Amino acid sequence: MLDGAVKDAPESPAVRDSAGRWSYRQLARHSVAFAAWLRRQGLRPGDRVLIQLPACREFAAMVFGVSRAGAVLVPLDPMTKAFQLRMIVADAEPAIVITAVPWASILRSIASVLVHEVDHVWAEVEDLCSSDPEVEQYENCPSDPAVLIYTSGSTGTPKAVVCPHRQIVFSCCALTSVLGYRSADVVFCRFPLSWDYGLYKLIMTCCARCEIVLAGGGTDLTLLSRMSETGTTVVPIVPSFAAMILRLAKREAGRLPRIRMFSNTGAALSPAMIQELSERFRGARVVRQYGQTEAKRITVMPPDEHNERLGSVGRALPGTEVWISDAAGNPLPAGRVGEIVVSGPHVMAGYWRNPEATRTVFRRDGRTGRVQLHTGDYGSLDEDGYLYFEGRRDEVFKRKGVRMSTTEIEQAAMDVAGVEAAAVVPPAEHHDLAIFAETALSASRVLKELADRLEPAKVPASCHVVDELPRTPNGKHARDEMAMLLKRSNG
């Protein structure tokens, strides 16, 4: 995919970070040199290469270089904790580990192979790049694993989704087409390349022959000026990042970048936030999406329908299928809530070295032979095939005999003027239903406003006003951390 971009647009800008910018030709040259470096280390096709770095041009080149060498990329966020690293290294068994100085000592105490510091590696790669090395590009089979993306489930134990070349290529090409990426676009990526949201954006820009700005290291206060400076046109967001952008935009009225599209994932945006983003950024389209690493993206609201069906997260990607299933596995009619089930060329190959979890989630239909992804998420379809997301498995629950989800309560909270962000913690043994909110309002005022918007059973028993919600490295709500805070506060 990178070589295709080089053939079509060799001198077009490909990737930019705080230190500089590469064209597609330069990105490709560095990826070839990195593949040559890997071969010199004795890397064999199928070996795993674990890379723990912030998003940068070097990391981008490594993504493609690992593929050229026929190896499997294991990208990790620098924020990954030591106890998680220990489990991941034992599970992935990497042949090569590359990281930066701050994390090298931790990985050296865990990994049984040599840990390479990126500065030393890249000095050698630059030497190879200047000598224009000859490297035989490995011909990957479409079913070969390209990337292992580690996710932590409700148990906290990391497990890796096996992402083959075929599924990655299909997903990236389909998304580029549905979202309408253009060669003139500049995609501002705030997310790490260890998260599929960031990694796929890098590959999608190759499909569109456009530019990606890797902006994870910048300060929050300069975000909008950085977008203006780079000519940003597309911004991938999650709700917490969207809230930050809006806070900054209120201070920068009249000097905002010309964004044509925001694409959201991670959790639902409130209708009020969607409207404000569109109004403040001169009619920018705010595209709602739903997905899981296990199938990358499952539904997308067409950009030209961004103001329609505001409760929906869109339609299935072309060439894929989404339906709703009851507990017995039977399809449900339009309007009925059940488990979201998916099939198509984007469904990944299962979990790495975890056959039990694979059988549970990736089920093969005995009649058709198709692999069906049972997401564990709940939702419904309307008569036209648009999906309405209700909540994830651990976010849908009953209270006082009423079925509800964290999503609907959080959306009600975001409808309250003055609430910047909100996260709901479902009831458990040590606490009742609770909500955490970033707001200048009092806790009692938030609860009163919620009582005006929700059925009585859905109004939280308590509200906790915080300066900032606890979040995971990927910007999602850290509900486990909030549940622990509740448990401690309740003795």
Question: How would you sum up this structure, described in words?
Answer:
The relative contact order is 0.08. The mean pLDDT is 92. The chain has helices at 2-8, 24-40, 57-68, 82-92, 101-110, 118-130, 165-179, 196-208, 223-230, 239-251, 271-280, 355-361, 406-414, 443-451, 479-489, and strands at 13-17, 20-23, 48-52, 72-76, 96-99, 115-117, 145-152, 158-164, 186-189, 211-214, 234-237, 261-264, 285-292, 296-300, 315-316, 321-325, 338-343, 362-364, 371-381, 387-391, 396-399, 402-405, 419-425, 434-439, 462-466. Helix 1 (2-8) runs antiparallel to helix 2 (24-40) and helix 7 packs across helix 8 (196-208). Helix content is 34%, strand content 26%. The protein is globular. The chain folds into 3 domains: 22-162, Rossmann fold (3-Layer(aba) Sandwich); 219-391, Rossmann fold (3-Layer(aba) Sandwich), CATH 3.40.50.12780; 397-489, ANL, C-terminal domain (GMP Synthetase, Chain A, domain 3), CATH 3.30.300. By secondary structure, the protein is α/β, with parallel strands linked by helices. The chain is built from 15 helices and 25 strands. The strands form 7 sheets. A 5-stranded mixed beta sheet has the order 11-12-13-14-15. Strands 16, 17, 18, 19 and 20 form a 5-stranded antiparallel beta sheet that branches.
What's this model, at a glance?
By secondary structure, this protein is an alpha/beta fold.
Q: What is the number of E strands?
A: 25
Shape: globular
Whole-number count of domains: 3
Mean pLDDT: 92
What is the CATH third-level topology name of the largest domain?
Answer: Rossmann fold
**How many strands, which pairing sense, and closed or not: the largest β-sheet?**
5 strands, mixed
Low-pLDDT parts are none
InterPro entries: AMP-bd_C, AMP-bd_C_sf, AMP-binding_CS, AMP-dep_synth/lig_dom, ANL_N_sf, ATP-dep_AMP-bd_enzyme
GO molecular function, one term: acid-thiol ligase activity
Domain AMP-dependent synthetase/ligase: 5-352
Organism: Amycolatopsis acidiphila
